[in-house]
């Protein structure tokens, strides 16, 4: 919620406020869950301190950053009384749609760039219209 990215690798859990500008953001919360959003950072910080995320537990194929993210999402779902998501279900419902959207955007950007078009940002006062 505060723009800090948590990631997990062979050195443990990291928190970063920058360096992730090229990542794909996957929205997970429905608009009606504002109360959960207010507790999100606290839940994530608490979760990331668990023993499961110590550096020596990292394993590239089976216990990695994807596992960390999915385990956190399932932790939040369980606090809400929902069933956990499998890796396949999470990938299909959340990751693939955003990846496809990003791919379409990048393809369009590449096509426009190769045809000597260029993209100019709108002036600040035209963003709302």
UniProtKB/TrEMBL annotation:
Domain of life: Eukaryota
Stored Pfam families: DUF4796_C
Signal peptide: none
Domain called MKRN2 opposite strand protein-like C-terminal: residue spans: 2-112
InterPro entries referenced in this protein's UniProt entry, alphabetically: MKRN2OS-like, MKRN2OS-like_C
Listed name of the protein: MKROS protein
The encoding gene: Mkrn2os
